[in-house]
Write a structure and sequence with these properties.
By secondary structure, this protein is α/β, with parallel strands linked by helices. Helices cover 42% and strands 17% of the residues. The protein has a 5-stranded mixed β-sheet with strand order 4-3-5-6-7. Strands 1-2 form a two-stranded antiparallel ribbon.
Length: 232
């Protein structure tokens, strides 16, 4: 039960919601208060200005891993980075959550860059390399297995660690192209919107980002089969 209701007149009458006792997370509220005070000490109008609008230039599509905090890695403030995260930073063409984030970022916020960022030692990639059943997430990890199958020849002969690292990189590359293949990007480019997609990867061992040197800023860089009628 999520809550109890007490008071007269039944559910339609006056009463109060009585929540069951829960373990306090007061320390998180204390940290939040400390953080907000530090921000206000630096800029008294920061939150007031931030509440009026958000004008980020970047959309970050990354992994849900708690060790890969998007804004922290690139030293950006609240309001400067629009973020979508999921297991293994996948861009799946039937994932309306991801697509909705992309559409809002591109069409409403008019972001200029989409960064797909993976990371080495990704648990999703590691799980996809194995055959151990894990339940519901197996269906999600099939997309990484597809990446492996596509690049299997190039992965042969690598050590297990090399294979893991390379698949983490290849997964980013494939997701960059998945972003570019959407009608969201195709329409934006057709309308003359300046928009580039980048592929990066993060190392947990040294805290550094690596550019995978994949950069797409128009449909002409895609295979013809993926260019929609609205694309140039």
């Amino acid at each position: 039960m999520l809550y109890l209701f007490s008071g007269g007149g039944g559910m339609g009458g006056a009463g109060t919601l009585v929540f069951p006792r829960m373990k306090s997370l007061k320390h998180l509220f204390d940290l939040n208060k400390e953080w907000a005070e530090q921000i206000r000490a630096r800029d008294a109008s920061f939150f007031e200005d931030l509440s009026d609008r958000q004008t980020p230039k970047y959309l970050w599509i990354g992994c849900s891993d708690s060790r890969v905090p998007a804004e922290t890695l690139v030293g950006l403030e609240p309001g400067e980075l629009f973020v979508h995260r999921n297991v293994a930073n996948l861009v799946v063409h039937t994932d309306f959550n991801c697509l909705s984030v992309m559409q809002y970022a591109v069409e409403v916020l008019k972001i200029e860059h989409i960064i797909v960022c993976g990371h080495y030692e990704c648990g999703g990639v590691r799980a996809a390399l194995g055959n151990q059943p894990m339940g519901l997430i197996d269906n999600w990890l099939r997309h990484i297995k597809d990446v492996y199958t596509k690049h299997e020849v190039g992965l042969r002969g690598l050590s297990e660690q090399e294979k893991m690292d390379r698949l983490c990189e290849l997964n980013v590359v494939e997701q960059v192209y998945n972003v570019c293949h959407t009608n969201i990007l195709q329409s934006a480019w057709s309308n003359g919107q300046k928009l580039a997609v980048h592929g990066w990867i993060y190392s947990l061992h040294d805290g550094l980002l690596k550019d995978l040197n994949i950069y797409v800023d128009g449909p002409n860089e895609l295979e013809p089969i993926y260019r929609t009628a609205t694309g140039r």
